[in-house]
Amino acid sequence: MIMARPERVLRYAAVAGVAVLAVAPWMVSLYKVHVLNILIINIILATSLNLVMGYAGQFAKANVAFMGLGAYTMGLLVTRADWSFWIAWPAGALLAAAVGTLVALPALRLRGLYLAIITISFVLIVHWSFLHARFLTGGASGFSVPHPNYFGLPIPNIQATYYLSLLTLLGAMWIVRNLVASGFGRSLLCLAEQELVAPALGINVFTTKIAVFALSGLLAGLAGGLHAVTLQFIDPQNFWLLQLVVQLCMVALGGVASLLGSVLGASIMILLIEVLRAFKGLWEFAIGAILLLTIVFFPRGIAGLVEHLFPSLRERRHRP
Amino acid sequence: MTAALTLEGVSIQFGGIRALEDVSCQVPAGQLRGIIGPNGSGKTTLLNVISRIYPVTSGAIRLFGDDITRWPNHAVARHGVMRTYQRVALVNQLTVLENVMLGLHATRRQSLLGIAFCTPGYRRFERESVDRARGTLEFVGIEHLADRRGDELSGGQMRLVEIARAVVSRPRVLLLDEPAAGLSLVRIDEIADLIRRINAELGVTVVLVEHVLNLVMSLCERISVLVSGQLLVESGSPSEVQEDPRVREAYLGQARAHGPGQGQGEGEAADARA
Amino acid sequence: MFFDLLASGIALGSIYGLVALGMVVVYKGARAVNFAHGEIFATAAFVGYLLTANGIGYWGALTLAVLVTTILGILIERGAYRPLANASDLALIIATIAVSFMIKGVVRTSYGTRGDFVAYPPIFSFDPLIIQGVFIQRQHLVLGGVAVVCMVLFGLFFALTRHGKMMQAVSEDKEAAALVGINVRLVFLWIWALGSLLGGLAGVLMAPIILVYPDMGLSILVKSFAAAVLGGFDSLAGAVIGGLLMGIFEQMLSGYAGTMFQDIAGFAVIILVLLVRPSGLFGSKEQTRV
Fold first, then answer.
1. Which domain holds residue A206?
2. For residue B245, what are the contacts with CB-CB under 8 A and spacing of at least 6?
3. pLDDT, tens digit (0-9, with 9 covering 90-100), for A98-130
4. d(Cα A49, Cα A246) in Å, to the nearest integer?
5. Given B101, B105, B110, which is nearest A202 (Cβ)?
6. ipTM value
7. Does the beta carbon of C215 lie under 8 angstroms from any beta carbon of chain A?
8. Number of domains, chain A
9. Taking the model in full, what pTM does it have?
10. In a domain, A209, yes or no
11. Under 8 Å between Cβ of C232 and C283
12. C22 assigned to some structural domain
């Protein structure tokens, strides 16, 4: 028997996965389309968090706040200022990216635990603002967001939004893949492992950190906007610590500094959440247990395990 | 001859302790300069000051005439100063080839947009980078390790990769911090040969801080001796340094059994290993 | 009003100090930030509630609940800390977050059909004491007092007993402690047990003055984090003082600016302190080397 080369298998699997996602809206129920859409958005989010936490090795956990800022900015501009979704969405993402650069500033001074604490506090403050700026955000009860205008595209809105998410995911993955396989990606890994050595190699730590936080903010902001139009609703509950921990799980479970890891982690977590949704407390217990077992037994996540078994599947950090 | 590196009255203080005191010296372009001195005399600190990891308290550092004293440290690297470390500092998540490519950051860089959208210009750039890195691996003699990861190498191999990373950008000045520490005698000979070739064939000015005195004596044209943060000998030939009674005294003062003579190299290497 | 707020601030603050102390003990001793500390607090409050609701007196319930959380601390050490002895800080942080979710899941399931919020039976009558014109809740007075006594006892334990000294030795230098024959692993176990004991104690002390609910761990976690950050994460005295300051600040803020700001006091303190003086009031500075 001839064994297929693992990297080729992976490539076919990726193509097949995209093909399945592309035809899925016409094959499954609307609810499942919705779940798949949420999965796609979460892969973007996991990738965004992985850039900062996995590749650049910064303990920053402000991702949920970027996502919320993207969603709220988009939603408010559309509902209050009558902007078109097609302008409001990128505007929200750009704002999230701008805030991302601000969060990068403490990351220049603070390390490890302290960076984690300050960014978590930032998430809580942003959540608190959404909750208490009632005149603008509707407080805890949130507000609804209309479907984007698809200019008479002859498919239903739900499917159209799904394809918008899918295209965003593919574009984001292409760009992030290019970036992590370049000098930029290599300097991120250098920051993660040897931060003091980086400048002596000519790496500008300041601009590199700013760039990776801005990029992460941009992706999370885009995902936030998509999330809002997918749910057709925005409320503060979606940008809370629980989501933060779920995203953390995706990255830890899938594998740090690995795009394959982000995809696998997000998929498994979303599947689990769907399966366990009916059980209130058990849900939390299961997530905790899975996370703990992963950390103890597979410190580099599923992707780490895969790379260990098939070294040729190691993510390339250069173009061959 | 122009000076590659000039230190003018460099002092540095940590808390109340003076780690370097009024150090002045010149390294002419193309020279292979050794810096020796007993443990804790400030040799590594001197390298850290030159590569701008530590800011100086007073004094000035010039690189080919440019005053780099207040430059940010990444700018110094881009101006042509590369270095290695006493404790090897490779990135374990990268392969050997990719680690060497990290060293190219100090030369040309690409715009993030170009990378993100994978423009033809960037593709060409990355291809050239791979070729340069492979060329350097061949020069160092470890091209067969290109696809290994940082944490899959032996100590000696790691040192070679670090040297490759430091010279891939063709720096003007190379700072080597104890490249022979922890190596066997055969390996030390290989490293000596490599340093000589870097100096002669690539035309790189080399500043070598080393504990293995044998290596320094056989390799370097001029030697500086650093004792308790001060330059005892600014620049002397190997024989001058060996015969200098003050140098002998300084080493004896630290460890009676070891003198800075030929044949003591093994003992020193053992020290460095410990 | 100022003195009323000050009094309740000190009472609450001394309990925050107790929670923060538990957290700092674990950080200082075992170099781990226990993100599950809030859940330990919440578990103690809930177990205490269950016991009192079943007719066990307050102090009996307190003892039993603290015993439960102490065992919980030991379990965390065995299950999540020891297996990760050589792992990165990130792994440890994620592990304690994972544990906090597991505990929260179990606690939430145990609430069953009880509803999400339950009221802890008060220990004393509700009418406040009036001393020199200042209103003081009797419960605040007693519970704050107990918290202070516990802190003093803990300080004495740490400074005077053999076990306390061993813990100090391990937290200063693990290798050296092992060399002089201290069983470092056992000491880690004590450290986690002790940290959880403090968290649980604070939970049962706090429960009668607030509502008990499954998510109560998070808000106390933020407050004790703020207290610990303010005091400096590796200073025992700092945790206590940070807790007091935190309690007073929070009460003043909610008294003068509105209760909605009570929630945000902790975050604001954390961000300010970390931006201005990351080592806190009494902590030691981190140092980096090439």
1. 30-240
2. none
3. 999 998 988 888 877 788 888 988 998 999 999
4. 11
5. B105
6. 0.89
7. no
8. 1
9. 0.89
10. yes
11. yes
12. yes
